[in-house]
Design goal:
mainly alpha
Length: 264
Amino acid sequence: MRAAALIPVCLLLFTAPYCRAQSEDSLLILQHKQMVAELDSLHADYLRACQAASAVDFVNLDQRARKLIGHYQALGVTDTHRYDENQEKRKIWENFDFDKVGDLGMDVGHYSDAIDYGGYLLRVADSLDSHSPLRNYTLYAEIWAETGEDAWWGAPDIDLAYQYEREFPQGPFIEQVLEMIGNCNTDLYHHLVCEKKGDDDYHDCTPSSCPDQPLDVQIAAARQEALKYWQRLKVRYPSRRAEFNEEIGSLTEDAVSSWHYCAD
């Protein structure tokens, strides 16, 4: 009787990992189906917005696109699985029209095969009306006008970033803008330090400095400006404190060794 009672327990021990894997796989498939459905819906609304040519419509589409991609990136399911061994996963994306992704300004990674979004719809909104009631959104697109948010090379327009901060200190993109200013000034500091050392490992797309000032003065000013913004971010967004402390530490310890923008 005792041995017989052990059989269900043993079966449970052996089958539990398999059942858990099956359950996780089913959830993943469901999430991918939901993502495809949301992309289809977003694209249908995009076509309607093209007819109306309304900046407000495109701002709303941009916010939906950011939320959609951010949500599924957090779940780890933006990989399209077009080449997955699992037939069911693969079939979800094989039947999807990827031209829709292109219309929405989204990209599919060459190696990752994952969908990403870099603000194209917001740039459309800005081109339609840069002074709409939603300028606190569209001005952000102008900061990246030269390259786009998803460009692998280039830097934002630091002057427009400062302008956004002045005009919209509580704007919807203020966290990104403050971080951008911190990044740009940290890169400028790194650029100037490399120049002082005679190291050519720096890039021309860093923000302009004050060439009429001695190099040490420029370095100190860039460091002070970067620290000011990292400290401000740390107070304003405490959930990211550890991340901002790393930036502060690299500046105070003279240990900046990488680039935020224009990296090879």
